[in-house]
Amino acid sequence: MDSNKTLIVVAGPTAVGKTAAAINLAQHYNTAILSADSRQFFREMSIGTAKPSPTELAAAPHYFINSHSITDSFNVGDFETEGLKLLDELFKTHDTVILAGGSGLYIKAICEGFDNLPTVPPEIRVRLNDELIEKGLAFLQKKLANADPVYYAEVDIHNPQRLIRALEVFESTGNPFSSYRTANTRQRPFNIVKIGLSMPREQLYNRINERVDIMIAEGMVKEAERLTPYREANALKTVGYNELFDYFDGRTDLKTAIELIKQHTRQFAKRQLTWFNKDKTIVWANPITDDIVELADRLLNK
Fold this sequence. Notes:
With 302 residues, the protein is an alpha/beta fold. The chain has 2 domains: 6-113 and 185-300, Rossmann fold (3-Layer(aba) Sandwich), CATH 3.40.50.300; 122-181, Orthogonal Bundle (Histone, subunit A), CATH 1.10.20. It has 13 helices and 6 strands. It has helices at residues 18-29, 54-59, 76-93, 104-111, 122-135, 137-147, 149-152, 160-173, 201-217, 220-226, 241-248, 254-277, 292-300; strands at 6-11, 33-35, 62-63, 96-101, 191-197, 282-285. A 6-stranded parallel sheet has the order 3-2-4-1-5-6, sandwiched between helices. Helix 11 runs antiparallel to helix 12. The chain is globular and about 55 Å long. The two termini are 20 Å apart. Monomer.
């Protein structure tokens, strides 16, 4: 690959309009889109992850959507390896490729790489899992907030697997999980241009609420019900499914579960923005009022 190859990153919080913007860019540059949404990889989860519709998927080549099963072990390190291999192929026939999504960690993996995380003694993981069962999610959330406030501000705190991963690294090394992701930025053999999508918070929150209502209307409850046998899979320990599993268990009613999905998704969007705002290389735009294609052209011609 050479330096006239460019990866255009389209980042931003959930429901901000990344899919539409990425498709516009892909059509403009006649290229493909890699999804950096850590939940859209899984083919069994469609409604609850707001995957692009069949029409949208047909509008441009997409990769890493429906690429894996929830029973597969697929983490951010695997994504880095597979994603770079794919980019290597795509850059043979395209000068520009799009990477779009809201999972900051996955975008970072492709753009900068990771330090190798230390191996953790299995007994620490077992103990943290026991604490989750005995003392609940809030206990682990508080523990992580004290141990690693940087990671706490950006992680999906409703995903126990992510909390445990960060805590086990901290407890086995004494160093915060966040410190392992910053030491060595790997030089990539392509240029990187980052566009962040944002809008006034009230507008974003309205879009999130509307999107949840649409998901429910499209059959998200049935989808979650179908996935109940796999509820222990890491992919399903996430906003939207967690709340519905509580409803199936009789811990809450459906109306409350839907309100909680909206609330937790809004909180998640806020944490996504916290994460992306730390990246000073991102150029921000409002997808409703700004011309994203024109902005990308301008950035590419700099």
